[in-house]
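Replying to the earlier thread about multi-chain prediction with a worked example.

Input:
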Amino acid sequence: MKFPSAIALALLLTLVAPLSHPASGPLDGDFQIHSAFVVIDRGVLQLNVHVQYPVNDRIRSALQDGVTLAFDLELNITRHRRLWWNASVLDMTLRRELTYHAVTDRYVLRSDQGVEQESFPTLEEAIDKLGRVEDLPVLVESQLRGEGPWQIAVRAGVRRGRLSDTMRALMFWSDDWHRNSDWYTWTLTL
Amino acid sequence: MDTDALRLFVVRGLTAVAVVAGVAALVLLAASVENSALFSHWQPWILLLNICGVIALMALLARKFWQLYRDFRDHKPGSRLTVRTAVMFGALVVAPLIIVYLFSLDFINRGIDSWFRVEIKQGLNDALVLSRSALDLRLREQARRTEIFARSLRELRGPELLQRLDEERRATEAKQIVVYDASGRASALSSDTPMAQQPAPAPPDVALQVAAGRSYVSLNPLPNGQYTIATAAPIADAVSAHPTHRYVLIDYEVPQALSALAEAVQHTSSQYGDLSAVREPLKISFRLTLTLVVLLTLLAAIYGAIFFAQRLTRPVQDLIAGTRAVGKGDFGTRLPLPSRDEMGFLVHSFNDMTKRLRRASEEAQRSRQAVERERERLSIILSRLSTGVIVTDRDLRLHSANASAATILGGEFSGAASDANLAQFATGNPRFLKFLDELRARLQSGHDEWREQLSLPGERVLLWACTPLPDEREHGGVVLVFDDITALLAAQREAAWGEVARRLAHEIKNPLTPIQLSAERLRRKLLGGMNAEDAQLLERATHTIVQQVDAMKQMVNAFSEYARAPDMRLAHFSLNQLVTEVAELYRLQDPSAEIRLELDPSLPDIHADRGRMRQLLANLITNGIEALAGVADGCVELSTRQQRAEGAVAAVICVTDNGPGFRKELLGRLFDPYVTGKPRGTGLGLAIVKRIVEEHGGRIEADNRPEGGAKILVMLPVNDQDRSLFAGAERRVERRRERA
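Result:
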């Protein structure tokens, strides 16, 4: 999310937080990034993240009722600048969808474009797979222009998927199927 | 910045925020409708702008409500009309808006509910069950086939095993058949792909299942919408028939038609599930969004209703305020023209009316001022008149009077209430009472126009005239004009006496000398030839004649002196010195005369006729000495002092004696000619003194001293300037004295 939108959202959330966020939601549970790091292998930055996603009966039930869940992994790489905003180097989102395949009684994990797909007999296996991102190439080393250090931030998010943006916007008031982890940040120096 | 400017700034700022926020939200919304991704990006801004607009609008509305309440509470003109109009406008807008809102709410509920009808859900579930049933049948069939096939592999190894796998793959149209050994490695493979790679290790769940001696079967979806059936079965030992931890894994491809149908059912079910999950949130969101939009519209409508009500009733309020201002006499009120409609015509008429009223008022004001000026001028003229003027009616109610009237009558009109009766001013004043009695008698007898003399107590004579007022004849209003002619009559009398004196002096003085000479000749001629007795008789007779002729000469000279009025020869000289000289002269002539002097050394030189002053002093001293005849320790005292009155400097000469004083009946006429209390007095001494004093613009008073004796006070202005000032002051003193 770009900075102005973040400001707007922050202001908006401040104003409407009491309306839009109930005390407990379906995505309650342990939701955090356990670890994240970047490995440079032959000039390619590869991301490794271990995320703990929440698992509970409401999620299971919703999936079995046909709800698709979208799991986003946001990655921001910024270059530190003195006396000014940090320069954005990379702003990417790894989006995957988890659905329950009622015909096969399996949990299907798809990439955003649906090119890659895996199925798992249990929700736990699917969530575990979702939570482990290994050696994901994100950037070529030469793209890190200028001098470091670089600030890397990773955040995981879960929301109800397969809704159009308009629909999602309309459901702003009452959509409690939306949760983000805290930003996991570290500094990269070469 | 003062409070009003700050308030205006805040109102304009809030209005600008509301308008800008609303317009910006609309623009963003319109742009994002075409691109849902934009909507996602701008959604926070759109909502934020809407909320800002709502807050600004609510603030403006709160201010409008406060204004209405304050005006209503303070009974401001037109506030009730504004409230009624605003309520009417508001009702006209709010009522249909609420109806539309309620209808929309119901429509949203019904519309969204209709998307998730029970029949659709049930149909989807049935389709799912059907798909599963169809696939389960195939799964069971493939699982049984795999178990049979696995048993056929117990004794096969090496090429035989591969051949058997190929045969089976071809027979069953399986995609791939793999045999895994106890270590989990693929020991044999048959694939429909010519260049098949080394197969991946079997999934853990497969290994676990077959390790337990059970068959494994699963249906796996592929990204392309196809399904594969994976079956696995343990391969038993050839001798003991116990599991050998070897197993065969076969991948079957589900027929495309069946896969497509199953995938369609799955896809539809998943979509329905997604939509069904947002059913209630969507309803809530729609309700909230609709409520927000309605609220915005409602607030804007109410604000607009109040705004237009105020705007509509503002001319009426202006008219009410203008009417009140006109009622209070402010004819300069001008109202702003609101428009060119009927209200504008009304306001224009009002402005025209106030303009005419203002002109008329200014004209009346000018007339009043002119009348007032005339009244003031008349009042000044009347106040400066020595003639008394009284305006009254037949009931003797005082309408107006000037100061001279009060002076002449010895009354006091200042501060009297209008229409006060004249009688209340005459209490204890015999002169005024006599005046009123005469006036009342004449008016009651029907006379309202006369001009005649009126004698009043205190030897006062008035010349009074009465004329009815032209516009008040029927009301009996009359104007009385009167003048105190006592002094005039006295002057006339004095002039007549002067003429008599002059004639007497002329006619009598001439024969006196021959008489005296003849008497003396007779005495000289006859005295020698007579006997002693006759001579003595002649001597006494001629002496008497000569003495009486001398007396007559003195009398005639006095008459002549009184009648003579030579020109004044004014000069500056010391009055104290003159007094000293004259007093010394009398002391020399009559050493027995006790004359005391008490002179003020600060007395300035006086500008007067020295000869007349000498005569004045001589007459006064003579008068005093003559009054002391037969009085033991008689004494005449002359004193001088300086007196300031009304800015004028006067020299005061005070002559007192300790004789018997003036007779009371003569006190009012002491200065008249031929009025004397002495047996041998001519009565001209004080008359001459008075005339000299008046010739010098001074004043003379005569009275008896409380301790006995007479007192004569002469006040003389020291120069010409003081003389003119003294004359004015004297007139005022005279008036005060008359009033007293």
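The longest helix of chain B spans residues 279-327.

Feel free to reuse this layout for your own posts.
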